[in-house]
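Hi R.,

Here's the chain you asked about this morning:
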Amino acid sequence: MSKFLTGAMLAAGLALAAPMHAAQQMRAEVQATPVNGLPGDSQPAEIFVNSYRAYPPSCVNAPLGSGLWQIDPNAQHKTITLSGDPLSADANERAYTEDVSVTLFRIPCSGGKSAMLMEIDRPSGASTTLYPVYPGIHVTQDTKQNVAVRTAADPNTFLSHTDAQMPLSNSGTFVFEAFYPDANPIDYNKAMTVTLDNFITSSASRYTTFTVATYDASQYPSATAGLPINGYMSSNWGNPNQSGEGIVLQVYDDRDFATRSLVIAWFTYDDAGAPFWLYGQTSLPNGARLISTPIVYFSGGKFAAGAAAPNVPHTNWGLATITFPDCGHMQVNYNGDASAVHGPKGQGSITFVRVGDVNGLVCQ
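And here is the predicted structure, written out as C-alpha cells:
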C-alpha cells in the first residue's frame, strides 16, 4: 500500500502534515531511500540562485538534447570546417579537419525572455580516433566588441564552461551563459553578431558570423503555450480574491528520467465557511504543459490521531486541470462535488498567484 506524506504551510499560517493512503491512480511514492549511494538522511548542500544567470533557470534543463532548435523558426544553420587539435603531439591530429553542422537558436522562456543555444553536429561516419576541436566564440553587441563568451553543456551553473579547442568526440548542444561575476554581461535577448573561430590560420573562411535579431516572443508558438510543469512550480499558491485559500503544489522526481508526479493540497472552505481541503495526485510525462488530476477529499478522521489510528477513507470529488501561463500564475479549471458532506462544489476556473519561491528553485 502506497503512503504519501505531504506538508503544507499557507500564507495564512495554516500548517498540515497528514499521511494519505493513495488510490490506484495515485501511484507515486516519495521515500527516503539512498540515491547514487548516498543515504536518504544525508545533509544536503545549500543552494543559492545565480544572480548572474543569462536566462531564467526554469527555462533550460540538463541534459541538453539534440534537435531543440526545431522550435525556433529563426534557427540558423551553417556548415563550418573545424580543425583538429593544434596542440596535439600527433601530426595526424594537428592536420585533421572536419566539416560540421552548426545551428544557432533560441528557446523561449518565461517573462518574455529566451536562452541562446548552439548545436554542433559531427557528420555520420565521422572518425572515432581523430576529433575536431571546439571553436572560439565571440559576440559583438552595442559597444561590446568581440567579447569572449561562456558556453556550457551543463546549464544553470556558475562556472562550468566548454573550453575553446576542446576535442569534440561527439555531437553536442551548448547554452550561452554569463560569466561570474560580470557587471555588464551580454544580453542574449538583444540583437548581436556571433562569430566562430576555427583556428585554421591559413583558411580564408576561418571566421563564421551569425547575425541574430532581437528576440521576439510572438514568433515562438511555445512561448504562449504555458510553461513545462517541473519542480520550479513547487510552491505555495494563493487566491488573490480570498485570503486563507490557496494551493500547496509539489512536483516530485519519479527517478525514471521520463515522468514526474504532481501533488496538490487545496485549502478552501465548505458550505458553512469552515476550512475544507482537497487533495490530488497524478503522474505526468517530462515536458508536459497541461495536466489533469483526480481530486479527492477525506472525512471521518480526527485531530492529531496517533500512529494506531485507522485509515481515513477518501471520496472522489472531481477533476482539476492545471496550466502555468508564466512563473507567477497557476490556472486551475475545476469540476467537483462534495455536497454529500456539505463541502465545496461547482465548476469553473481560477487563477492562483505564487506566494514565494522554494529555496534554490526560482522560476523567473
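One quick note: Residues 91-95 form the longest helix (5 residues).

Cheers,
M.
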